[in-house]
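Kindly inspect this today.
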Amino acid sequence: MSDTDTKFIRIPRDRRARREGYLAGRHGHTGADNPYGGDTRAAREWLMDLLDGRTRQLFVIASTDEPSD
């Protein structure tokens, strides 16, 4: 390969934004809860993982076998 060939570079991702977005999606938050402002890379990554987390939402299951006092 010569130096004129196109080289691929890996763009670093904001892991914190992705994790926060995923967890927010799991807990049922909306895109309005995005803590990263504007059209930044972190804001877009948070939103992408919010949508991914929403497909795997956490649900509360109430137990009917409560102990009696």
Q: What stands out?
A: The CA atoms of residues 48 and 66 lie 39 Å apart. Residues 15-54 form one domain. The radius of gyration is 20 Å.
